[in-house]
Known about the structure:
Layout: E1 3-9, H1 13-21, E2 26-32, H2 38-46, E3 52-55, E4 69-76, H3 84-99, E5 104-108, H4 119-123, E6 129-130, E7 133-134, E8 137-138, H5 142-147, H6 150-159, E9 163-166, H7 168-182, H8 186-193, E10 199-204, H9 210-216, H10 218-224, E11 227-232, H11 236-253, H12 261-264, H13 273-277
Parallel strand pairs: 1-4, 1-5, 2-3, 2-4, 5-6, 9-10, 10-11
Antiparallel strand pairs: 7-8
Helix pairs in contact: 1-2, 7-8
Amino acid sequence: xxxxxxxxxxxxxxxxxxxxxxxxxxxxxxxxxxxxxxxxxxxxxxxxxxxxxxxxxxxxxxxxxxxxxxxxxxxxxxxxxxxxxxxxxxxxxxxxxxxxxxxxxxxxxxxxxxxxxxxxxxxxxxxxxxxxxxxxxxxxxxxxxxxxxxxxxxxxxxxxxxxxxxxxxxxxxxxxxxxxxxxxxxxxxxxxxxxxxxxxxxxxxxxxxxxxxxxxxxxxxxxxxxxxxxxxxxxxxxxxxxxxxxxxxxxxxxxxxxxxxxxxxxxxxxxxxxxxxxxxxxxxxxxxxxxxxxxxxxxxx
Length: 301
């Protein structure tokens, strides 16, 4: 069966743990273990997931003989989005290091300031690339992904322009994000900017109860004194794109062409073969040989 490689930010670590824990199609999950992936593996363990392992470096990954989907996941550091070129370079390097070992790449990112408006062209790898889609375009960012898409996202901004959005990962990492964005003066600088805001909107997902989110931002509320409101989020867009990636590879395994960028970037609404076959396809191309860890020369940065 096929291997899907995931590259995601720490902000979405719990949502990916939730997604993977609920997927009975997965035979093996391999996590590249470092400080950034610690909460992901913690969450998988808490969910009772047994079919996962940790490896210290991607060079230690070998394909397991299996008739089920296998997952290789790497968690990238927070706040790469603060500079478009930094995020693009980090994803390019990570994608090239991973693409030799997998059959498709799944990005846990959105447009992120238009850094990923054309991820297929940016990454330039020989495997399909999937990014969470909102209708005919990638989601704007992690908030847009978990709030349910651009229409809802913009609607909340229009309702109250001074809205500070907080998804589960933001409630956990907010101090570190402020430090990354503003340096050593992180919280002091944020205090000068946040008077423009009047509410903090907590967007909950199945990955974290709203009570835990409120607990995480207790100090934030004390510092910035924003009115707190809540709304229910979703991982539906993430799940739909994930199912589309799996289905695309199943079709490929039976001889059909890999989807081209129009399919990879399409707004997939379901998980049947019909949901994919109606999109335009590239000409059939030969699948590259399966990765053999005994012969592979590591990608050199």
